[in-house]
Amino acid sequence: MKTFPSQLSKQTAPAASLKRILLIEDDEGDQGLFMAALNSVELRLQCKVVNNGLDAINHLNRPLQYEMIFLDLNMPLMGGLDFLKILHEKKNAINIPVVVMTTSIEPSDKDRCEALGVKFFFHKPAKFEELCLGIENIINDIN
Question: 20 to 30 A Cα–Cα from 64, which one of 33, 47, 92, 107?
Answer without folding.
Answer: 33
